[in-house]
Amino acid sequence: MAETNVTFAKIVANPTLFSWAQAYNAGKLFAVLSLEKNEEELEEKDALNLLGKEILDNLEQEFYSLETKDLESIKNAVLVTSKKITEDVFCSFVIGAIVNNILYAFVLGKGKVDIKRDDKFGTILHIEEGPSSSIKAASGFLQNDDVIVLQTKQFTDIFPSEVISSSIDHQPPSEVAETLAPKLHSHEKEQSGAAAIVVSYKAASDLDIPPEEEQKEEEKPKEEEEIGGEDQFPQASIEVKSSNYLSKLNSYIPALFEKIKIPRTKELTHSKKLFLTVAVIIAVVFVSSIFLANKKQNDAKTQALFAQVYPQAQKKYDEGESLLGLNQNLAHDSFQQSQKILEDGKSKFPKNSAQEKQILALLDKVNQALNSSSGVTSVSANQVDDNISAILASEIKNPGANYFTQDDKNIYFSDSNGISSVPKTGGSAKVIIKPSDLPKNIGGLGVYYGNIYVLDKEGKQINKFIQTSGGFSKASYFSSGVSPDLSNATAITIDGSIWVLFSDGSIEKFTKGNADNFSVTGLDKGFSAPTRIYTTVDFSNVYILDKGNSRIVVLDKNGVYKAQYQASVLKNASDFEVLEADKKIYVLSGGKVYQVDLK
To answer: What is the pTM of this model?
Structure first.
């Protein structure tokens, strides 16, 4: 399959509090999404915006995690993503994915996919009526200069097919958008859920031949909505070895002249001398033609192999570049695939050939991209004064305690005496909650606005101790009917929501006593014996002490992997404190405090 070139442009209406739309792209994955909700059902100002971004992020992660991208697998990814859309939200979700020269199209809820080929304009998919959960799919071969238009229902309500067709008329996507966008914003029926993306497909030259693996992945499109057809040409594997053409020529010449017995020139007549001269010329021409034919054949094989290796490596490199701002871990995977293609292929080209130089130049760019996109930072942890972190200094002074937490004024810890409080300005510890009021098996300790939270591993509850003028009164965080399994919890942290870390590496987030939909995505390898989790209401990220992998992992508050810091002292660390604004982490390991700098 030839390598392709895709250009696109987006058209999106202005959002409102109750209606939001977005046109989206990641590599060769395209989508338009609109969400609407009744005014009386809207709880938060940015609810639709946040939900929309979560849906698009999830679609990207599901799509790029697929080993084989075909109609069924991509449809399943869309269905998994659709689970995030609640029943009280009206949805128009239209997706298009280009894999090799095949378009896979999907409409979830309501929406439309149109195509313009040559002078013909038609509809691939269209759902006008039905629930938001309804889905329709189609796939087919694309042809050079095809233009595809993905549209939300609100966009189709404003622009009939004939308007879109005439706007496309042999224009690049950017000019189509410049034509339609002003009409959208000035239209008397402008709808804030209107969005479209215009995609132009162009096939590259026939020399862009992919590796055999990618051809095996390619499947014939389903006949549900056949767009077009293209012949398939299986490619043979070509192996090119370096050869010394001069040495081959030298091996031909002695063998040839061995056959020709040249008599002494004095014995030759003029006619015989002329005949001999012609014979030698013919022999030289014959040998030269063999040499040139052999060289041409090897050059053709080299070029064919280069067309197998280089374009595919370049494709993966470009894919990684396009993903850098969206998902660093997926970008890293694309760079690794490009690196493997180049490493496997570079030895097959003649030394110092033009092809080898191009391969090595791209490999250098890929290696640089890998270094910058890994998100893994090996750091040196420098020992600092114990008192630089009040909470870690308190842990050193109270080795019998098992959990510590802090607010602006005090440090709190749990031990056999109950829960005690120590002022940060200095002084002795004071018991504020007696052991008889606490669970037998504590799995985490936190403080939020003066209230103390204690995780009860056996009771499937988080006890909330509310500060009063006379001390603390005990209440349950989870209401009746909510009883999560907390038996393997190792720590908690609070930023308004309560984050619970478990020994198997899973993380659960609870808000107002109810479980949130939270999962970790993009992490290169799972947690191993994680022991502490840390965030605050002012932090952008969540930090996890992963002792088994000697690292601290950074996630954003949607669970998306951001970075990780590796240092040998983390293997034996017992706790840590993060100063996000100061870009510092203080780590307690082996009874000493170390500093790790954030980037």
So the answer is: 0.46
